[in-house]
Specification:
The complex is a heterodimer. By secondary structure, chain A is α/β, with parallel strands linked by helices. Helix content of chain A is about 55%, strand content about 10%. Chain B is flat and about 95 Å long. Classes of the chains: A alpha/beta, B alpha/beta.
Chain lengths: ~425, ~400
């Protein structure tokens, strides 16, 4: 049974908040909800959203987590917090008090990051919870509508999900794509008349590469029913909302670890809590051999920044950077060496070390790392043009990695469903142009 | 400023509906892609009632992802002494904290296990399958009567008194009394049994239709049976095993692998034995004939034999093989021959068909069937050819 009451949590939380405030952290208030592990897994499946529309993929996500837990492949998640104002975080009843203290301090770090990091500027944290609740209601009403039903709804969600990472990476409000184009045309009518730009250019659709693929489809696809467009918009909104978290995983976790470590050391925990706290902390920030543990790298770097440039620099970094720019700027050779980073290629049962973080190798290792961090693990696809109602998507090849064609083909099939017309994708395979 | 705390008691199982949808999809996938469920580990569970776990390829959510060309990655080495150019055996990868794993922007086969009972599995597998006519006509049904335990009653004869259930009643009553305040556990008062606590085991007469079957799994493991061929053979036998098991109470399975000699082996060896040597089919078939006569009386047992081979046999053995097959066919309810030729397309074997399949061709009828397996997709087709009526 648990060794704490809500009152204990409240008391520790007050002390944590006092310390955090003294340090100048600036965070959304946090609402903690206690739940058991089963509910926790349920909340995780929906990314912590208190309400979320249903889709089989979340059922799958639950099963996968549940199974991994039961097989002992993963421990229970310590912490789950969402970027909302107020933040909502879940505390598991099964966790002992020292762990709850650690989690609460950790959450303050996350909440500060959500509120102050520039990447999150347009996530509309104030309204995300009601937005999701509304989305759920609407999708539920389509499912219950006898002329639509769950199968059709599921198909559209399947298709929209397949494009959900294809949203602009840079922080931006959701744009009105049609409106933007007509404004551009208005501004360029004179150039058209004077012959500076061709008619073809003037009427180009889109008028510039459009990275918001879902947004483009919802704006221009023919024959979309209102409910279909609405579902696409719901997925699009959520994709915009989550993109900053993909782009700042290392920083976000690093910042939260940096602060829980500082705060817990300042809390003067009794010995019986302090030692298990250190144990848990080390568990969280340990390296994961042959992969990148964001807690490990992020925690290390924020400490180094404090050491090298002072705490103020840490605050600046947490405000202006995302993972890629953060690592690019702050990860030094010394860090690569200390983190024992290396690059490797792998096949089914062997890995072969390519470079290690020594004098010659570390820059290469760092570059490889930068390519897989943040949103760089997601291929960049944009809408190039529309010709005879065919949607032409273009893959911005990064010079190294080709697309997985078996997946790309399925995504294109999904896209055709949404676009209601032919869709083509242009990419490079083995350095040669390739069209799906 | 402090935070707000609350107990979270709603939505206890919020993902139940989505899990159900997902399960439906998996069931459909299992039915559609039967070959995908062939388990990696020992495929034959000993206990028919046991729950078995079958690895299922995840229902994929497709996104644009990077492929495997130029898959150089960066990772941390921990305390290990990582040296450039060195190769390391991959350890089991452990994922980190569960919370962080957002759904895949990495490609990767997602496997996870679905726990189903054998009955459920066979239902998935064989629901739409037409059972061959011969099963109805020729199966021996042996009636057996058994007394079975069936729950508890509050009346009965003394010898069937269930002490455990009776004691449980008393404890329940005692606890309830404590809660209600009508009994003080601290006091010396005796809290005895009452008539109502008594529970008796109930038994019931059960009539069962038991059928007996013995199946001979015969697999060619000669040098020409490549890994892939054996995989196909194994997939086939997997289905077969569970199918037969679902139909018969008692199933004896005899595993015979052969090159030039027959070997009776256990399940594990059967599937994992290395391949070597030439091929003689008749000794294996004769061995099966002999064993069937000796161990299973064909009058009370339904004998089945299935032979998977790549079709190679020494020319000098052909006549003997045909003779043995003929005898075997007469003894069996069903004798199936499965020729495994991965990579062959259909046209090829039509045009220059050698091997046992062509030699056996004249025998084909209701009791002897011969099929080809050219790839994974054919396993299920082959299966249907054996057990579906008109395929």
């Amino acid at each position: 049974m648990s060794d704490w009451s809500l009152r204990d949590l409240q008391e520790w939380d007050d002390r944590i908040c006092d310390l955090a405030k003294d340090h100048g952290l600036d965070w959304y208030p946090i609402t903690y909800e206690t739940c058991d592990y089963f509910e926790m897994l349920g909340n995780m499946a929906y990314h912590g959203m208190p309400t979320h529309y249903g889709h089989w993929s979340y059922g799958k996500s639950f099963e996968v987590q549940h199974q991994r837990y039961q097989l002992g492949m993963t421990g229970l998640p310590y912490e789950l917090i969402i970027n909302s104002n107020p933040c909502i975080s879940y505390l598991m009843k099964e966790n002992p008090l020292y762990l709850q203290i650690l989690i609460m301090a950790h959450c303050v770090g996350h909440s500060d990051f959500f509120k102050t990091n520039r990447t999150f500027a347009h996530t509309r944290a104030d309204t995300v919870v009601p937005r999701m609740r509304n989305a759920k209601k609407r999708i539920q009403s389509y499912i219950e509508d006898p002329s639509i039903g769950i199968d059709k709804v599921e198909k559209i969600i399947d298709a929209a999900h397949s494009l959900s990472y294809q949203v602009p990476r840079f922080p931006h409000d959701i744009r009105d794509i049609r409106q933007e184009r007509s404004e551009w045309q208005k501004a360029n009518r004179r150039s058209l008349n004077s012959g500076e730009i061709t008619e073809r250019r003037f009427n180009a659709l889109p008028y510039q590469p459009e990275y918001d693929v879902l947004g483009f489809i919802s704006s221009y696809a023919r024959g979309l029913k209102d409910w279909q467009r609405d579902i696409i918009e719901i997925v699009r909104d959520e994709a915009h909302y989550f993109m900053p978290q993909i782009r700042t995983k290392v920083m976000n976790e690093g910042w939260a670890c940096f602060w829980h470590f500082k705060i817990l050391n300042e809390l003067n925990l009794p010995q019986k809590y302090h030692i298990p706290f250190l144990k848990s902390h080390n568990q969280v920030v340990r390296p994961h051999i042959t992969s990148i543990n964001p807690y490990h790298v992020g925690f290390h770097l924020f400490n180094k920044i404090e050491e090298r440039h002072g705490l103020d620099e840490c605050f600046i970094a947490r405000e202006v950077h995302h993972d890629e720019s953060f690592l690019r700027q702050y990860l030094t050779r010394e860090d690569c060496e200390e983190l024992n980073l290396f690059s490797f290629s792998e096949n089914t049962d062997m890995i072969e070390v390519k470079e290690v973080s020594d004098e010659e190798g570390w820059k290469h290792v760092k570059n490889v790392l930068l390519k897989q961090i943040g949103s760089n693990s997601i291929p960049v696809i944009y809408v190039d043009f529309v010709e005879d109602d065919t949607l032409i998507l273009y893959h911005e090849h990064d010079g190294r990695r080709d697309l997985e064609l078996s997946y790309a083909e399925k995504v294109i099939d999904h896209t055709k469903q949404l676009w209601n017309n032919d869709v083509k994708l242009i990419t490079l395979i083995d350095d040669a142009p390739f069209e799906i | 400023m402090g935070s707000v705390f609350s107990h979270h008691n709603t939505n206890a199982d919020r993902s139940a509906g989505d899990r159900r949808r997902h399960k439906n999809k998996i069931e459909k996938a299992i039915k559609d892609g039967i070959h995908d469920i062939v388990a990696e580990e020992s495929i034959i569970g000993q206990n028919g009632k046991k729950k078995i776990r079958i690895p299922v390829k995840g229902i994929k959510e497709y996104k644009f992802v990077y492929g495997n060309n130029n898959n150089e990655k960066a990772g941390a080495g921990g305390d290990a002494d990582i040296q450039k150019g060195k190769k390391y055996q991959k350890g089991k990868k452990k994922k980190g904290k569960g919370g962080g794993d957002k759904p895949g922007n990495k490609k990767g086969e997602e496997f996870y296990e679905v726990e189903v009972t054998l009955e459920e599995l066979t239902e998935y597998l064989f629901k739409d399958l037409n059972l061959p006519e011969l099963e109805k006509k020729q199966m021996k049904e042996i009636m057996s009567e058994q007394w079975r335990r069936k729950g508890y009653r509050n009346e009965g004869i003394r010898p069937r008194l269930s002490k455990k259930e009776t004691a449980k009643r008393r404890i329940k009553r005692k606890k309830a009394a404590e809660r209600a305040g009508s009994y003080d556990p601290e006091s010396d008062e005796h809290f005895g049994y009452i008539e109502n606590d008594l529970r008796y085991k109930h038994i019931k007469r059960d009539t069962k239709y038991a059928t007996n079957a013995c199946i001979f799994f015969i697999m060619d493991v000669s040098g020409s049976m490549s890994k892939e061929k054996k995989f196909l053979a194994r997939s086939f036998f997997f289905l077969l095993y569970h199918f037969i098991r679902s139909k018969y109470e008692k199933t004896e399975i005899v595993f015979v692998s052969h090159d030039t000699q027959p070997y009776e082996v256990d399940e594990d060896k059967f599937f994992n034995r290395g391949s070597s040597g030439g091929t003689l089919v008749s000794p294996a078939l004769n061995y099966v004939l002999e064993q069937a006569e000796k161990r299973f009386n064909p009058k009370s047992w339904n004998v089945y034999a299935f032979h998977c081979s790549d079709g190679d046999n020494w020319l000098s053995d052909m006549d003997a093989a045909i003779e043995a097959s003929r005898k075997l066919k007469n003894m069996c309810q069903l004798y199936g021959y499965c020729q495994i030729e991965p990579g062959h397309d259909d046209m090829k074997w039509l045009s220059d068909s050698k091997g046992l399949a062509s030699v056996y061709e004249w025998m084909v009828d209701d009791k002897f069937k011969s099929v080809f397996i050219n790839g994974k997709d054919d396993v299920w087709k082959a299966f249907k050819a054996f057990f579906g009526a008109n395929l």
